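Structure ticket #2291
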Amino acid sequence: MDEEGSSRGLILSLLFDHCLLLHPEQTARLKNQLPAYTVGSLQRKSQMDVLLAFIKRALEHPDPAGMLNSLTQMIGDVFKLMPSEKHLSGRDLGRMETIPSLKYRAAG
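Resolution: structure written out below.
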């Protein structure tokens, strides 16, 4: 959090969403007064476009196996798996014994 209370990650996410408004397919939809595409679908489409461009380039390369190994290394370097904080994972939950009011409620 910065001084204004905004999360920089949130700001970056909003800027990215704003940039996707300029995506050529999105611009065409808006120009023709059609419903806009979702940000998620534009992200997935862009990711697949990049993957397909890499595959085409790798197939034309003299050493496709070497390019695939390079991609594998880059993926390992860039996309680090992060531990989840959902579902109270790894948190001290305090006392977990049943309290009297719950015993009566379960019996009734």
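Closing remark: The two ends are 48 Å apart (CA to CA).
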